[in-house]
């Protein structure tokens, strides 16, 4: 087994470093993805920056929830 890749048992989370748009695709968050893609480029860039600064998967999920609700439109 590759030592650089872990498993869920040792805390490795594949979503942790995943870009926001890809996370929405993989997580089948279609409403959030539609809202995200309807935003202008600057707003998407700001959200991507917020996602990069997020401290883990749960924080990113909350950000996606806000996008899905339309909080950034």
Q: Tell me, what's the shape? A: globular
Largest sheet at a glance? none
Unreliable stretches = 1-6
The DSSP helix count reads 4
From the alpha carbons, calculate the radius of gyration and give it in angstroms: 13 Å
Beta content comes to under 5%
- Tell how many strands the DSSP assignment holds: 0
The overall pLDDT, averaged over residues, is 85
Secondary structure class reads mainly alpha
Distance between the termini: 44 Å
The proportion of residues forming helix, as a percent range, comes to 55-70%
Give, in order, the helices and strands: HHHH
What do you see in this structure?
By secondary structure, the chain is mainly alpha-helical. It is 58% helix and 0% strand. The protein has helices at residues 20-26, 30-38, 41-53, 57-69. Helix 2 crosses helix 4 (57-69). The longest helix is centred in the middle third of the chain and has 13 residues, at 41-53. The protein is globular and about 40 Å long. Residues 1-6 have low confidence and may be disordered.
In short:
The chain is mostly helical. It has helices at residues 20-26, 30-38, 41-53, 57-69.
Sum up the structure in keywords.
73 residues; 0% strand
């Amino acid at each position: 087994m590759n030592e650089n890749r872990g498993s869920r048992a040792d805390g490795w989370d594949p979503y942790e470093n995943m870009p926001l748009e890809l996370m929405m695709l993989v997580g089948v968050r279609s409403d959030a993805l539609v809202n995200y893609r309807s935003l202008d480029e600057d707003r998407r860039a700001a959200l991507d920056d917020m996602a990069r600064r997020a401290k883990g998967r749960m924080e990113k999920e909350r950000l996606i929830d806000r996008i899905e609700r339309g909080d950034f439109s």
